[in-house]
Design brief:
Layout (H helix, E strand, L loop, with lengths): L1 E10 L12 E10 L5 E7 L3 E7 L8 E8 L2 H10 L2 E9 L6 E7 L7 E6 L13 E4 L8 H6 L7 H6 L4
Antiparallel strand pairs: 1-5, 1-8, 1-9, 2-3, 2-6, 3-4, 4-5, 6-7, 7-8
Length: 168
């Protein structure tokens, strides 16, 4: 059983680009979700890799949750993409930073211009230096989960709600 330990931040500024790797286009289709917070999604990276992922609800802190991910044929992922009732498209950048596995996701379509940084940690109590370009921490705030952003994209939020987080 895999345990994902992750912290998430809204990104403010472009400072992250100085340590960003090659852009990776991602498409995620959400196939099922339960009221208890369990989601099933497919993810396509470019044209050559795909996975099916089951994520359990986050623990009370919002920091940890069980995640099960399995490679699947790209043709299966494309078929699942066409069936997915909720989808999102983003570009992921691996970051060369200490203190965990950092990525920045730049969302497209109805979730543009949203940019979120995530860091996967070895332990919940791992020390972390948060880069200056990270804004508000959104760890454990379900509204910012990819699954909810696929279902209720940023552009469907009220202007007041977006501005509360410094977004247009």
């Amino acid at each position: 059983m895999a345990l994902e330990i992750e912290r998430r931040f809204l990104v403010s500024g472009e400072g992250w680009r100085n340590c960003a790797g090659t852009p990776q286009p991602l498409r995620q289709g959400y196939l099922a979700a339960s009221a208890e917070g369990i989601t099933v999604r497919m993810r396509l990276r470019g044209q050559d890799q795909a996975w099916l992922t089951l994520k359990a609800a986050a623990e009370a802190s919002g920091l940890m949750r069980r995640e099960f991910e399995y490679p699947i044929p790209v043709s299966d992922a494309e078929a699942l993409w066409s069936l997915a009732p909720h989808r999102l498209v983003k570009t992921r950048f691996q970051l060369d930073l200490a203190g965990g596995d950092w990525v920045v996701d730049r969302f497209e379509g109805e979730n543009a211009p949203l940019v979120i940084a995530e860091v996967e940690l070895a332990a919940a109590d791992s020390a972390l230096v948060v880069p200056e370009w990270c804004g508000a921490e959104i760890t454990g705030v379900s509204r910012w989960s990819n699954a909810l952003l696929a279902h209720q994209p940023l552009q469907s939020w009220s202007v007041a709600e977006r501005r509360r987080y410094g977004l247009p």
